[in-house]
Automatic annotation (TrEMBL):
The lineage of its organism: Bacteria, Bacillati, Actinomycetota, Actinomycetes, Micrococcales. Residues 11-97 form the Rhodanese domain. It comes from Microbacterium suwonense. This is Rhodanese domain-containing protein. PROSITE patterns: RHODANESE_1 (PS00380), RHODANESE_3 (PS50206). It comes from the Bacteria. Pfam families: Rhodanese (PF00581).
Length: 97
């Protein structure tokens, strides 16, 4: 499984970001530009995922890691974001609400 850290995420440009946290978590604050596809809905919303490589984030990295493993098994080019949104906020990066 491919992974990047928050510093690498902050430097990336043009790579779609999928946030697999639940809707209320996402609404409370998310990485700018992230698209919410909750892990609980992921299997039913695969058609909404990008056709190109994309990153997957959650709160700390556990749910996104599970999502990436499942998506890789289906042929998606997905990368896990270690540390998740919690680490993004802890490092002082901006969030959208």
């Amino acid at each position: 499984m491919k992974s990047i850290d928050i510093t690498q995420l902050a430097a990336r440009q043009g790579v779609p970001l999928i946030d697999v946290r639940e809707r209320d978590e996402y609404a409370a604050g998310h990485v700018p530009g992230a698209v919410n596809v909750p892990l609980s809905e992921l299997g039913d919303r695969l058609e909404e995922l990008p056709g190109e490589a994309f990153d997957v984030i959650c709160q700390a990295g556990g749910r996104s890691a599970r999502a990436v493993k499942a998506l890789e098994a289906r042929g998606y080019d997905a990368t896990n974001v270690d540390g998740g949104t919690g680490e993004w906020i802890a490092q002082g990066h901006p969030v959208e609400k």
